Amino acid sequence: MIEYKDIKDFTAKELERLFLSVEWSSGHFPEKLKIAMENFKTVYSAWDGDKLIGMICAMDDGIMNAYVHYLLVDPEYHGLTVGRTLVDMIKEHYRDYLRIAVIAYNDELHFYRNCGFKEADDASPMFITSLWT
After folding, report:
1. Strand pairing partners for 54?
2. Which candidate in 4, 5, 66, 74 could, as Cys together with 53 as Cys, close a disulfide (CB 3.0–4.6 Å)?
3. CB-CB contact of 33 with 62 (8 Å)
4. 130/133 Cα distance (integer angstroms)
């Protein structure tokens, strides 16, 4: 039974395991991830018992715009609607906002489209980053 929580208190080890399960380079910086989670405005997580299996994190301006920065689900739990449930939780939380934005990896565009997101015709994501994934 998967349980969903509205918490920001994770161990560095829990975050490291989850982020590396999807091969995200930020998993190599678990102490930074721990602080980042505490600083996000909104964090929802999915748990299988005491195992962190998914999370979504967003920041916002308090009234109009929200940005989903992280959405990840342990590959062992893909296909079980964990990601969709987490997105639905964010959509409900920000239902009165005018925009919810996400930068989707090309391989995941179909997922985000199925969740109601649309690609911009006149914008492209841009980064300055030290991460490799």
Report:
1. 46, 73
2. 74
3. no
4. 9
Element (H, E) at 12: helix 12-21
Spatial strand order in the sheet of 42-48: 2-5, 42-48, 51-60, 65-73, 99-102
CA distance 85 to 80: 9
Task: Examine the pLDDT at 133 and tell me if it is beyond 80.
Answer: no
How many Å apart are CA 23 and CA 118, to the nearest integer? Answer: 26
122 burial type by CB count under 10 A (0-12 exposed, 13-18 middle, 19+ buried): exposed
| Block residue for tokens 């999915």 | 46
Short-list 113, 109, 61, 115, CA closest to 85: 115
Contact 54, 60 (CB under 8 A): no
How do residues 64-97 score in pLDDT, each as one tens digit?
999 999 999 999 999 999 999 999 999 999 999 9
Residue 40 pLDDT more than 90? yes
Task: Of 64, 1, 57, give the one whose Cα is nearest residue 26.
Answer: 57
In the chain, the amino acid numbered 84 is R
Beta bridge partners of 13: none
